[in-house]
Amino acid sequence: MTTSFLFFILFFQTLKYVHASFICYGDFFTSNYGINRDNLLSSLPSNVVNNDGFYNASLGSVSRNNRVHVVALCRRGYEAQACKTCLKHVIDDTKSKCPHQKETFSWVTAEANDVLCNLRYTNHSTFGKLELSPFTINPNPNVIESYKNMTLFSQEWIAMVNRTLEAASTSDTSSVLKYYSATRTELTEIPDVYALMQCTPDLSPNDCNRCLRECVNDFQREYWGRLGGGVGRPSCYFRWDLFEFYKAFDKATRVLAPPSQASPTALDCGRDEKDFEGRHIAIIVVPAIINLIIFVALVCSWKRKTPRTGIKESYDPYDGQSMLRFDFVMLRTATHDFSPEMKLGEGGFGSVYKGVLPNGQEIAVKRLTRGSGQGDIEFRNEVLLLTRLQHRNLVKLLGFCNEGDEEILVYEFVPNSSLDNFIFDEAKRFLLTWEVRYRIIEGVARGLLYLHEDSQLRIIHRDLKASNILLDAEMNPKVADFGMARLFNMDQTRGQTSKVVGTYGYMAPEYATYGQFSAKSDVYSFGVMLLEMISGKRNKNLKEEEEEEGEQEGLLDFVLKKWSEGKYAEIIDPLAAPSNNIPVDQVMKLIHIGLLCVQDDVSKRPTINSILIWLESHAAITMPVPTPVTFHTAPLSPSSSLHG
């Protein structure tokens, strides 16, 4: 007995486990819940090791409110015994600290052993679901005091974090523990900075990226200035420090800090004790220089020069609207010189990159193709419109840059990319539950209502499609890409053009054929997108369908045919079958609305206002019967042109 007790003490003194993140939450459970929890946890360490480092399971009855769901993992490259020991320790600690609560999560590190493990149990299924709350922050108690150039440190720290985050959130299908990264970085004034990030492997890459980004933002917001710290959420973990807190760093990625944009004078200032006298002189001289700089800045602002911060409040060069003008050098730094790793997507007029400003704010940077006349038009259009449009379901334009032949638009960063990346990807489509799909459809409708009727302008989007619907952190939709939008007078209802722009399959027939567009043209595009969301099928060009699949009908024909035959179930996406929260009759209402939107006869299509009334109504409603639709594969007008 005595020997066992001494071994117990020596073991944990040697191991030196540190709970980087540990929290109990939720309601108190009954004895049956506790029994199921203990039964799951008893075999958990062995199950984790036997399943390549990650294991999830559940036990109990939902109806009796005693079902327990558990998820556990060890870091990538774990040693079997170290993994088991870590999990056994955290299980014992969890039972001790959370004896009666239904939910808990722990991210545990061991400074003496090469271990990182995670344990999480809840009373609801969490597999494949991103959960950001609750979260814990454990900052280093020491404060940064001695670094001479905090601006430089901040820039290099952000670059280090971005590299670690991108590596951690990139899916590696060859490993079950695919979301993991440990880096060791040499900064200008610090020999080594260590960072580690890991997500549970059941997440999508976007969810992992978002979770880790939230952790980084939490640390910056709450404890910036501390010499390290860790942030844990149920789905991910982030830690950084100035010491080798993790033995795996002998195998970690070692990189140099990126070149600094700071001036050499700022970096060299005060580094040698021989400069002591010079610093005293500087105390006298600097105030005079500051006064001179202020005077010069006032003169420069009259000449509308870009300030050294890289951002200034300026005026829209087309109609005098106040907005931010970004410095090109700042945007180049924020996007790692527009590196391919930071690219979010590419369109007909240019590429979109993710960027991070020196203050940590994430942005989306749209760099238009240089020398493109169409790009010039799109740039002007978006600046002109988005400076005067503000709605929660429209993407927000933060500012622009037009230096030399560079034309760049800077938007708010929307972490979940665009709708098409979910609805047309079988690996992600299950994340779009009916509740989420309904909210997206309703949000897009609200954005269109604002454009068509409620804003100070009347805007026809002309290129509404799944790839132009961005999804924020809560999967709320934001209508984007206004490069092809047209401005109407308030009493104008229809326009015509000889240059048809947009995307086949989403174009209303009167627009594709004759160049006629109106609010009802956007309604048609909305209907196509709505039917895509219901079915999980892309509204492909008929010619593509024949070549790829040998089919003779497009999505609209398919939906109308099944609707007419009463075979509603064949329309509905099997990966998101209606649940108790979204009953079948509500899904049928969505199909009905979609078919009304894509009618050939413009006058029979509903207004976006009518659509919203139908969507928001929980009572039985009467809607018109949809008429046959035509699937258009190409404009008939010989003078038409297209941007895809």
From TrEMBL:
- Give the Gene3D superfamilies listed for this entry: Gnk2 domain, C-X8-C-X2-C motif, Phosphorylase Kinase, domain 1, Transferase(Phosphotransferase) domain 1
Q: How does it sit in the membrane?
A: Single-pass membrane protein
Keywords associated with the record: ATP-binding, Glycoprotein, Kinase, Membrane, Nucleotide-binding, Phosphoprotein, Receptor, Repeat, Serine/threonine-protein kinase, Signal, Transferase, Transmembrane, Transmembrane helix
State the organism of origin. Brassica napus
| Domain Protein kinase stretches | 338-621
Name of the protein in its database record: (rape) hypothetical protein
Keyword Zinc carried by entry:
no
PROSITE patterns reported in the protein's UniProt record: GNK2 (PS51473), PROTEIN_KINASE_ATP (PS00107), PROTEIN_KINASE_DOM (PS50011), PROTEIN_KINASE_ST (PS00108)
One GO biological process term: signal transduction
Provide an example Pfam family for this protein: Stress-antifung
GO cellular component term, pick one: plasma membrane
